[in-house]
């Protein structure tokens, strides 16, 4: 047998309703591999669409040393079930036995992408690297010589054979540890392979040789962000700014860290600097960060346009694809997202995806983000007619896949949020491309045709602040999932660490949504309502907790009146939201998914309706379409006055809860099936226009 590890045979099938498969498993357990192979061959003939049967057959062939045949059977298994992590691992084992190191590494890497806890796949991937390195280290490396090793590494790097390049570079660095060029190429290879932890260590080695390399310091910031080492990334960024204080991109990143980490001392000056760069059309500030900095849709568009141009350079769109008439065919709708997992986008969209009319529409999911094996990931994968895990396709290959799939309407649910892939849309793979739900603002891109909104988030007259044509639904643009799990039993105030009497004001948003201005308003409310507390989600860092406690002191509020809620799994988090008497919203980035979550358990939210930016008006839209306009403040002063009034009138708060409970019944906000019908009507109108050869045009969908 191959030295690589299959681990439990990686079949994920112990109990099975396929008799031949069960028999084959038993024969493998008894080490009767010839008999097992014969039986499992019959199983694949009887159940040709069973990924389990093909995978198990391949395992039997491996035990017999028939690795080439095993490769074919494992390939069949992963074609039938692209998310079968065990089959990808077993494919890698068979490829390793044949010495196909690069392909084996890719197979193990895919297995880990699907199942991060797959110990066998992780060990096997490491073994591949060791095996490759062994070919070019030791005596062979001495014989080959540093110059030849460098030439081979460059040749393999330029031909995009990164694993082979990595092996030669490892050998070269062992011979010449101070070779800066070798270490820089080594770092590039690690980045190409998405080996970010290893890249972080390689960066430290490069900086030990060249401590003021500006380019490497920039890369270090990005890599540390990618692996969620935000404190280290922030320190690296400060070092970068010390060395080159005039870097616009570094200044733009600094405001991101100030927001994420709650660095309120530096935030005012950094915010001013970021907004100046927007005025100067520098295109360095992330559009998502702009949503946190201003409630002006005009400023957000001005900052987003050059940002997108900078990041979509060098792309030649695919040739236009004519759109066939709708008569007698299904429309193909593709939903692209990085967030088919435990994430707000999944919480909002799951029921809508399930409710789409499969008689009239083919619904395809394109995942560009991680697989967390959560309930929502599995549920969405089952809901889509086809589901493609495209995270590892490059932008051009991904665009070609969408074109090959014949998508009529490509709906981007990610926009400019984490792991976004706007360059895919820049290739123009679909005739109609739509910005919806995941990002609360304009894409600022000529290659996105429409944005789906409602009359509150994009009021009449604000269309000029969007690069897309505006389509307004007759109801709130945001759907919700009625099947959200709410943890039981619900905790008491005492169990949640809250005082048993007094008003509980709350905002359980992430720290990045809270700014000094909003916090100052909340403290004014606490000062006017005796015995009240402010219930906040515990920041991830000690410095974040210190920021909030210190800010309370600066406002003359006892820091003991700031109560931190620990982080909990989503269902248990929902199960405690009823403990808040009144949520005081953030601004300018108001509550979005969280706003609906509060209302799901009848907890009132008091928000400010922003100037004209999408993100600053979402909570107002939710409340308006629920029929609770009394919870919408028109200014900061109005929010403070309303909050104090409610805080001093417990009967009004109780009446608000009862009203929310009544208004939720039958409201389309919480009815994914009716919501899906609205979206389908929108998609049909978009495609009808494209089929007629007409340019995109905005419209308000009739009720």
UniProtKB/TrEMBL annotation:
The keyword Nucleus does not apply. Belongs to the glycosyltransferase 41 family. O-GlcNAc transferase subfamily. The keyword S-adenosyl-L-methionine does not apply. Its EC number is 2.4.1.255. Residues 326-481, 492-678 form the O-GlcNAc transferase C-terminal domain. One of its GO terms (molecular function) is protein O-acetylglucosaminyltransferase activity. It comes from Candidatus Defluviicoccus seviourii. SMART domains: TPR. It is an enzyme of class 2 (transferase). TPR repeats lie at residues 51-84, 85-118. PANTHER family: PTHR44998, UDP-N-ACETYLGLUCOSAMINE--PEPTIDE N-ACETYLGLUCOSAMINYLTRANSFERASE 110 KDA SUBUNIT. One of its GO terms (biological process) is protein O-linked glycosylation. Pathway: Protein modification; protein glycosylation. This is protein O-GlcNAc transferase. Keywords: Glycosyltransferase, Repeat, TPR repeat, Transferase.
């Amino acid at each position: 047998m191959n030295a690589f590890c299959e681990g439990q045979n990686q079949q994920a099938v112990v109990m099975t309703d396929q008799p031949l498969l069960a028999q084959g498993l038993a024969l493998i357990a008894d080490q009767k591999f010839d008999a097992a192979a014969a039986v499992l061959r019959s199983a694949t003939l009887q159940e040709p669409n069973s990924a389990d049967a093909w995978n198990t057959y391949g395992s039997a062939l491996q035990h017999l040393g028939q690795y080439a045949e095993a490769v074919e059977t494992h390939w069949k298994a992963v074609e039938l079930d692209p998310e079968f992590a065990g089959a990808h691992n077993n494919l890698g084992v068979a490829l390793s036995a044949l010495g196909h190191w690069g392909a084996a590494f890719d197979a193990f890497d895919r297995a880990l992408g699907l199942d991060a806890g797959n110990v066998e796949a992780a060990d096997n991937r490491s073994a591949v690297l060791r095996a490759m390195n062994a070919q070019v280290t030791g005596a062979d490396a001495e014989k080959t010589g540093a110059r030849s090793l460098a030439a081979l590494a460059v040749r393999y790097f330029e031909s995009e054979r990164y694993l082979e390049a990595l092996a030669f570079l490892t050998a070269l660095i062992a011979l010449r540890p101070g070779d800066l060029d070798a270490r820089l190429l080594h770092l590039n290879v690690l980045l190409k392979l998405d080996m970010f932890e290893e890249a972080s260590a390689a960066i430290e080695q490069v900086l030990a040789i060249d401590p003021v390399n500006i380019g490497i310091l920039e890369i270090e910031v990005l890599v540390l962000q990618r692996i969620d080492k935000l404190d280290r990334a922030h320190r690296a960024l400060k070092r970068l700014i010390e060395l080159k204080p005039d870097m616009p991109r570094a200044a733009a990143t600094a405001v991101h860290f100030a927001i994420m980490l709650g660095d309120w001392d530096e935030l005012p000056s950094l915010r001013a600097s970021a907004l100046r760069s927007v005025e100067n059309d520098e295109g360095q500030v992330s559009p998502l960060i702009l949503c946190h900095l201003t409630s002006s849709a005009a400023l957000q568009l001005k900052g987003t346009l050059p940002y997108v141009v900078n990041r979509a350079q060098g792309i030649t769109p695919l040739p236009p694809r004519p759109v066939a008439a709708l008569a007698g065919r299904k429309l193909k709708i593709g939903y692209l997202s990085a967030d088919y997992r435990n994430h707000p986008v999944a919480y909002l969209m799951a029921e809508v995806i399930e409710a789409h009319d499969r008689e009239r529409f083919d619904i395809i999911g394109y995942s560009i983000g991680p697989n967390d094996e959560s309930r929502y990931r599995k549920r969405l994968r089952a809901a889509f007619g086809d589901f493609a895990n495209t995270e590892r396709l490059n932008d051009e290959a991904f665009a070609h896949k969408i074109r090959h799939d014949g998508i009529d309407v490509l709906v981007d649910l990610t926009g400019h949020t984490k792991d976004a892939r706007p360059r895919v849309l820049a290739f123009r793979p679909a005739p109609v491309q739509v910005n919806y739900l995941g990002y609360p603002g304009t894409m600022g891109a000529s290659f996105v045709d429409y944005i789906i909104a409602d009359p509150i988030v994009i009021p009449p007259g604000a269309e000029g602040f969007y690069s897309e044509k505006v389509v307004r639904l007759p109801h709130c643009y945001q759907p919700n999932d009625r099947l959200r799990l709410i943890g039981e039993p619900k905790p008491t105030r005492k169990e949640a660490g809250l005082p048993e009497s007094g008003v509980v004001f709350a905002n359980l948003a992430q720290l990045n949504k809270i700014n000094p201005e909003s916090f100052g308003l909340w403290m004014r409310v606490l000062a006017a309502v005796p015995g009240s507390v402010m219930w906040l989600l515990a920041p991830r860092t000690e410095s974040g907790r210190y920021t909030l406690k210190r800010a309370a002191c600066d406002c003359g509020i006892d820091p003991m009146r700031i109560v931190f809620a620990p982080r909990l799994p989503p269902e248990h988090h929902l199960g405690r939201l009823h403990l808040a008497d009144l949520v005081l919203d953030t601004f300018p980035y108001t509550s979005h998914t969280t706003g609906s979550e509060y209302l799901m358990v009848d907890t009132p939210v008091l928000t400010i309706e922003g100037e004209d930016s999408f993100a600053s008006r979402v909570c107002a839209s939710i409340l308006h379409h629920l029929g609770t306009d009394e919870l919408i403040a028109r200014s900061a002063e109005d929010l403070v006055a309303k909050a104090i009034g409610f805080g001093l009138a417990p009967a009004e708060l109780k009446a608000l809860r009862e009203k929310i409970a009544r208004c939720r019944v039958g409201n389309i906000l919480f009815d994914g099936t009716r919501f899906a019908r609205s979206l389908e009507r929108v998609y049909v109108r978009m495609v009808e226009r494209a089929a007629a050869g007409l340019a995109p045009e905005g419209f308000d969908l009739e009720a």
